[in-house]
Design a protein that fits this description.
17 helices; six-stranded parallel beta sheet; Rossmann fold; 53% helix
Length: 428
Amino acid sequence: MIKILNIGMNHETAPVELRERLATEPNNALEALAFMREQECIKEGLFLSTCNRVEALLTTDEVEKARKLILSLMSRLGRIPEEQFRSSLYTHEDQGAVRHIFKVASSLDSMVVGEPQILGQIKEAYVLATTQKTSGVILNRVMHRAFHVAKRVRTETEICETAVSISYAAVELAKKIFYSLEGKKALLIGAGEMVELAARHLMSQGVSAMVVANRTFERAVEVAKSFKARPVSLEEVDGQLLDVDIVLTSTAATDYVIAHSQVKRCLKKRRNRPLFFIDIAVPRDVDPKVNSLDNVYVYDIDDLKGLVALNVAQRQKEAVKGQRIVEEEVVKFEKWLETLAVVPTIVSLREKADTIIDTEWGKSSSALKELSPEQKEAVRVLTRSVAEKLLNDPILYLKGKASRPTLNSYLDVVRKLFNLDGDKGERS
């Protein structure tokens, strides 16, 4: 029997030091899907890797074997012995797995409840799974329903109205350090969505000047233009550290972008002015040792949890509504999943009807040869309509019994009544 299985870790179960090990390589998702595609016991698979979670969603007929394979995969991807991360993993099966992915897509399981980025990340993971041909009937249905649930939660609750993004939380943290951001200067390293969101929040809080640095200078120019900022190359970051007050970084680099020695060199020329780093990248962009320098403050993505927690109370009411929507949709999905057991028999019924129609049509071809093409088509449509109406009641009956523990008995009776398996010995 096919089971739905979800195995992963998130911001609640694993520290950033562990999560970043699995998010280091950009091709990890492709490698994971290729691995799952090669395993006979894994029928369908999807791999989600973000700064706050790493998860495998799959279908299997051998749960324990599939679970062990996914653990070995994660161990290889992160170059971590299994015993070092096994306790940080969660596992959900069937209804629990569906409920979990619905909550994730709806941002009810995010560090910042209501943040919109996770839905886009899940859609990207699903597109990759479809292009790599690891998603099939069941996961296709799971993911499309997850997108539907996310839309319902977004439109039927006010959870997004009261939510804050990681970028907004980062700017709020900067305000706590400097009290006011009026007249402050900021350096943004990276040019992705998180950086753009941070730029908007910084502008709204009175930051007087911004500089954007990126590995691709053309992209830095593009982002800087939107915020009347100044673009620079990554090679110019050293000089910018002398002048700015806030450095917000979010790149896809696999090594530190900001080194301890690099920051230490600029401190004398800054004359004890505080320098505030907000590192929202996974893997981290700023060497943690930078935080040991005088008048330098470094906060990574996990440090934002405390600030985010302040907003939990005002979002809780809307989150409860979102949970109710998720439960409604889980029940609907379960009903659909139960009907899968009757699909082969329904398909066999329709195939047998088609075979009978084609056979009888062939036998009657000489009697129908005087008819015009239009008349022949009308007879064929009539024949198919009669067959469909005769099959309609048995099909509805089977679907209605899909959730019964005695379903196999009903299926067996229908297959014998219609001789769907052919003459196999004595027929009763």
